Amino acid sequence: MKRSIRFRFTTLFIGMLAAVLLAIWVINSFFLEQYYINDKVKILQDAYEQLNDCAVEQALEGRNIIDDLPSFYSKDGEQTEVSRMLRVMNEQYNTTVVLIDSLNDRTFPTFWDNRLLSDLVRQYILGRSMPDTEAIISEENYKIEKRYDKHNNGYYLQNWGFFDIHESVALSNRFMIYVGSAALVLGAVFMYFAGKRITSPILSLAALSERMSELDFDARYTADSQDEIGVLGGSMNTLSEKLKETIGALKTANNELQQDIEEKIRIDEARRDFIANVSHELKTPIALIQGYAEGLTEGMAEDPESRDYYCEVIMDEAGKMNKMVKQLLTLTALEFGNDKPVIEQFDLTGLIHGVLSSASILLQQKEAEVEFEPSGPVMVWADEFKIEEVITNYLNNAMNHLNGKRKIKIRLEKHENEVTVFVFNTGNHIPEEDLDKLWTKFYKVDKAHTREYGGSGIGLSIVKAIMDSHHKACGVRNAEEGVEFWFTLDCSL
Q1: Based on the domain organization, do 385 and 276 belong to the same domain?
Q2: What is the CA radius of gyration of the chain?
Q3: DSSP H helical ranges for 298-403
Q4: Is 371 a member of any domain?
Q5: How far apart are CA 363 and CA 176, in angstroms?
Q6: What angle do the packed helices 169-213 and 5-27 form, to 10 degrees?
């Protein structure tokens, strides 16, 4: 792991400490001396002004300031105002003072080396030039100079004397307070921006987690860093992606569950409708069978012709019921996928001829004129027996709804790898709003007419189920002078 937070903080701390130390060294090297000199100059100025004010005040009273100075060296005696002033200057400010009475040539130093101080003062008073000396302040009554001492290899400030420029602890501490305050302010500013740079990716992660809590999994951590935060950001990106996939899977499962629930509801509704329709369709034939059977039992049919009629009605209604039950079983098997088609190749033209031949007697009874002139064999791929049932249902439907010219026309249209079979019959048009409903179980456009020819409203539902099992289309349309049904089959695999 490159450039960890621990490493960055350690480096930051060491760098800041080194910078502070470097700054202190630079400031001490280039600014401390001048600051020291300026401070001592101020002290000398204040000392001169205090002593001068005291001397003037005592002169106005007819006294000499030097007369009060012997008490400076006394430890037990009473201190005068001047001696106390000099003691404070000597002890507190490290300042040595030499006072000279020019009238009687008396000298009073606050330093034991009287000779050295006296010589220096006399050089100043006599105006003798001194080597390695630089004037700092030159006034009418006093002068402050900076002088280099070769013996001590150091600089001195002198004002009617001199004092050694040794390090003062109090002055250094005061100076360090100033430097430390400046360093503190600069360090605070530096740490603010440095901390902001470090915490910025953390805030980005916080914003990312907030968006994730709102299920916004498109949010990503984009910072290109290889530290702990970068690893955490990558982990959050991975977590976001996995949560997105998981929630997507849950949504898919939920949709599937919802579809299953809807399918169950649909099946329940279909079951109820089925039971209701079956009950309704069986009610009439059962009632007829029961009625005619009771008539036979009660001797209502006394002659052979009446008994034959009663028996024919019972047999006819029983046959309708048997036919409807078979159709329902077939439709149920198709809808639930229990009767899957067996795909094989066969001649569609021959199959149609076979259906027409089987229905020839019925066609004659219906006085139907059939037109079917194929150009030759048409080979298709499908379940031959189920397609035969489709054609049979279309043909029966056409016969039962013949009208006008009473003509039935069957034709084939081939398009590339697909052939379409059309079954047309002359008759009344079907209302447009009923065309899509013809494929619904038990739906009848004309219930009276359907009952007349013994229809149950299941035949076309079987056709739709068979074509769906083949994954092929079927339909119906109103044509000129009649109605045309159609379905499609594959010519090749």
Answers
A1: no
A2: 62
A3: 304-335, 348-358, 360-365, 384-400
A4: yes
A5: 124
A6: 150
| Gap between the terminal Cα atoms of the chain | 61
Q: Are residues 228 and 377 in the same domain?
A: no
Residue 347: partners with Cβ closer than 8 Å, 6 or more residues away: 377, 378, 379
Helices and strands (H, E) in the chain, number of each type: 12, 13
Q: Please state the domain count of the chain.
A: 3
Residue 209 forms part of a structural domain? no
- CATH label of the domain that carries residue 422: 3.30.565.10
Per-residue pLDDT of the chain (493 residues; tens, 9 = 90+): 455 565 666 677 677 767 877 777 777 667 777 777 788 788 878 878 877 887 777 777 777 777 766 666 665 656 777 777 777 777 777 777 777 766 666 666 766 555 555 555 555 555 555 556 777 777 665 677 777 776 667 776 766 433 333 344 456 656 667 776 777 677 667 777 776 776 677 777 777 777 777 777 677 767 666 676 777 777 777 877 787 788 778 888 888 888 888 888 877 776 676 666 666 566 667 777 787 787 777 777 777 787 788 788 788 777 767 776 776 677 676 766 667 888 899 999 999 999 999 888 888 888 899 999 877 889 999 999 889 989 988 998 898 888 888 899 999 998 888 999 999 999 888 888 888 888 877 676 655 445 554 556 778 888 888 888 889 999 999 988 899 999 999 987 5
Euclidean distance between CA atoms 402 and 428, whole angstroms: 8
Residue 346 sits in the same domain as residue 421:
yes
Range of the domain at 155: 5-173
b/e string for 299-319 if b means 16 or more Cβ within 10 A? eebeeeeeeeebeebbeebee
Q: Is residue 179 part of a domain?
A: no
338: DSSP letter: S
Are both 60 and 161 inside the same structural domain? yes
DSSP letter assigned to residue 70:
G
Same domain? 412 vs 437:
yes
Quick check: 465 and 335 in contact, CB under 8 A? yes
CA-angle at 173, arms to 170 and 174, nearest 5°: 85
The verdict on residue 308 lying in a domain is yes
Which of 282, 280, 290 is CA-nearest to residue 310?
290
- Residue 321 sits in a domain of what CATH number? 1.10.287.130
